């Protein structure tokens, strides 16, 4: 059974190995270039604090490349699920070869177990190797950015990429078994996996552990990172409120000292169109505060393990559905 599985899977394995080698070369060159740039310009001043222009220049140089790499790594599990998982059973059912395969000495349960285990491990291993290479290549950027909870970075580092791969592969196999058409299963796999990749980070991840609460003063340093200001009467909402070494999940509207409502007229006078620096300086003088809910960086690995466990549970549930369904499939 192992030999038969290899014979059926070898073309996909060769294509995957070639693609992995090409990506590994790219990541190796990217990592060497990024590390050389970091050592030359930032390594000596990171502990004491580098000039803002130097740090911003480094981030601007590599931000787009790192974003594309992270997006690619997050997409890999879905592609493996679609092109490796969907045809695994769906291809047999569409071609009718399951009638012959399941009449041999190997039971259909064992047939499914070997296929899911061998090809699933291959998909997980490929994704794991890519995650390790990516983490090494962009480690300098991650050090400078210091935002491990960022949606793309979190999904492309640690243990979660392998959990994504296992889930996407078994999702593809289950789709093929239920839909009996590889093309339809491919589309369903990509759609469901993409939906999970949007739903989990936004709806579930912030609540794995109850967030902590902090009172943040809107001084000049905090306001310099603001990415949006909305004033509705005396209700001032500041976007992009940040805490050092933490993930701010949400932040309430600004309040004056002792929790009083801010002076709407004074705030309106601060909002000078076309003069961002003057607006920030004026707001900093109002002694405003916001209540923020945040996750400290010390929870990064607990969050990684929780999300890995979540996807592992979904993978196990799909595998159980496969084994239950295949016994009744003709």
Descriptive account of the structure:
The longest helix is centred in the N-terminal third of the chain and has 44 residues, at 52-95. Helix 1 (2-41) packs antiparallel against helix 2 (52-95) and helix 2 packs antiparallel against helix 4. Strands 1-5-4 form a 3-stranded antiparallel β-sheet, with no helix packed on it. The protein has a two-stranded antiparallel ribbon with strand order 2-3. The chain has helices at residues 2-41, 52-95, 98-101, 108-137, 139-145, 151-155, 160-179, 182-204, 220-223, 264-270, 276-284, 300-326, and strands at residues 212-217, 228-232, 235-239, 246-251, 289-296. The protein is mostly helical. The chain has 2 domains: 2-208 and 300-326, no CATH class; 219-287, no CATH class. The protein contains 12 helices and 5 strands. The mean pLDDT is 86. It comes from Kitasatospora cinereorecta. This is Transmembrane transport protein.
């Amino acid at each position: 059974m192992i030999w038969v599985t290899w014979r059926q899977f070898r073309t996909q394995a060769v294509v995957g190995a070639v693609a992995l080698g090409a990506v590994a070369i790219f990541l190796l060159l990217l990592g060497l270039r990024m590390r050389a740039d970091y050592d030359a310009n930032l390594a000596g001043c990171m502990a004491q604090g580098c000039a803002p222009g130097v740090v911003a220049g480094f981030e601007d140089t590599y931000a787009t490349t790192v974003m594309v790499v992270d997006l690619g790594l997050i997409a890999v599990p879905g592609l493996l699920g679609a092109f490796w998982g969907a045809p695994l059973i769906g291809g047999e059912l569409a071609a009718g070869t399951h009638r012959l395969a399941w009449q041999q000495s190997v039971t259909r349960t064992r047939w499914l177990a070997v296929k899911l285990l061998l090809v699933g491990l291959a998909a997980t291993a490929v994704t794991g190797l890519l995650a390790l290479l990516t983490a090494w290549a962009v480690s300098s950027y991650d050090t400078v950015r210091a935002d491990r909870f960022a949606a793309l970075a979190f999904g492309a580092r640690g243990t979660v990429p392998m959990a994504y791969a296992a889930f996407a592969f078994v999702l593809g196999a289950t789709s093929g078994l239920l839909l009996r058409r590889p093309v339809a299963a491919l589309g369903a796999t990509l759609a469901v996996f993409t939906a999970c990749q949007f739903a989990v980070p936004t709806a579930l991840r912030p609540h794995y552990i109850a967030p902590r609460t902090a009172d943040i003063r809107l001084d000049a340093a905090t306001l310099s990172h603001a990415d949006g200001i909305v004033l509705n009467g005396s209700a001032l909402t500041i976007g992009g409120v940040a805490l050092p070494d933490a993930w701010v999940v949400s932040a309430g509207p600004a309040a004056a000292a002792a929790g009083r409502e801010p002076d709407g007229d004074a705030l309106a006078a601060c909002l000078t169109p076309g003069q961002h620096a003057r607006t920030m300086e004026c707001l900093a003088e109002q002694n405003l505060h916001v209540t923020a809910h945040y996750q400290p960086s010390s929870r990064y690995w607990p969050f990684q393990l929780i999300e890995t466990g979540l996807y592992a549970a979904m993978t196990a549930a799909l595998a159980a559905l496969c084994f239950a369904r295949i016994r009744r499939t003709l």
